[in-house]
Amino acid sequence: xxxxxxxxxxxxxxxxxxxxxxxxxxxxxxxxxxxxxxxxxxxxxxxxxxxxxxxxxxxxxxxxxxxxxxxxxxxxxxxxxxxxxxxxxxxxxxxxxxxxxxxxxxxxxxxxxxxxxxxxxxxxxxxxxxxxxxxxxxxxxxxxxxxxxxxxxxxxxxxxxxxxxxxxxxxxxxxxxxxxxxxxxxxxxxxxxxxxxxxxxxxxxxxxxxxxxxxxxxxxxxxxxxxxxxxxxxxxxxxxxxxxxxxxxxxxxxxxxxxxxxxxxxxxxxxxxxxxxxxxxxxxxxxxxxxxxxxxxxxxxxxxxxxxxxxxxxxxxxxxxxxxxxxxxxxxxxxxx
Length: 337
Description:
The chain has eight helices and eleven strands. By secondary structure, it is an alpha+beta fold. It has two domains: 2-140, CATH 3.30.1330.60; 191-336, CATH 3.30.1330.60. The chain has a five-stranded antiparallel sheet. It is globular.
């Protein structure tokens, strides 16, 4: 006689197809706890940093707990464990679109009615976990020349070009979602070199604006100025974004052939208004004011104003993911000389 030992809490937006690519990692928790153990967080970070194609991967998070406690208590505990992992992923720029939550009321690891106390302890420990699955769906998965989601699975030759190939895959998949064309390693995207006066990597990271360094930027492309953030509710740059803004200036000054519109976007606005409130001026034009701020900064530091325009779009162009993703400024390429 066996009885089910876990309650399942789910956040998912993963479909199932035969040729999809999937990798999974389990995170284990202490009894009655939902915060990361340091050893488990370190292991998960190592797994996460080994992943390839992250911006186009889908995520499934399954939370479990052991057989002790009431249904209500275990449901809440599973939910908290899932939320711990979900918030970590959001903080690491995973766009969790189409999030569904449900309590399935059943588990994966059964607890045997046995007298072996050590076996029971070990089984319960295995049930106190969250499983995180990363998936690349079809048809994108079949288009890859490097059919793996982990850098550790690559050959030395593949590792030498994976950064460029990853950029190419993400761009091609986003541009032609339904295409079945193979994305080859040949003709990898080429990048220009723009010297920097900022001690690289900026903010302890690799080049943050590789998309702006691509040689073959085309008209109608949208380039998000990732990690350019503002003070909450204000058209004022967050001080942490100033080094990144300086890097944008360096690149745009070095590329005078690119013309663009600066687009401001916000999230979470009152539907009665077209835009969010700017606390600096108390006017409902926050997305416009932020786009104008970027325009003024670029103009002041050497980018020809005749190449630029700016506009605020409020919340008319949401990305469909988290609110954090919708609070953004981006460049829409209007012309390339």
